[in-house]
Amino acid sequence: MKLAEALAERAEAARRVEQLRTRIVNSARHQEGESPAEDAAQLLSEVGEVLTGLEGLIRRINRTNAATSMGRDGTLTDALARRDTLRLRHSVVTAAADAAAGTGERGYGRQLRSELKMLSALPVAELRQQADVLAREIRELDVRIQRTNWEVDLLE
Known about the structure:
mainly alpha, 4 helices, 0% strand, flat
């Protein structure tokens, strides 16, 4: 099985756990004299089996990520950490640029000369350029990660 297939299977298992959790919560209590829509105990057993399989899959994915070299990006685990921090950095830089530009502010800005004028404390254009560079880095790294996911076999 390729790593990408395992990742898709992990996502499906996580969705299944969430669906079962919702069904368990909905069936955990019922009115006296009525029966619950589903057997909550049986659903708990089923979610336990799904979680056991998910744990094994996550362990294999993590082992594969740690053992897979991506050349200049280090291991796949290193590349994933880099991508996560690039995404956070992009989010912060974009939020800073939006705030400095006054994006999302309420009101219509200054209407009278006697009202206080709001000034930017940050260079908006430079921040937008930084955000563009970060976005490109994220896209390029993500492509390398996705390519690796489809090339690498999942470890046992």
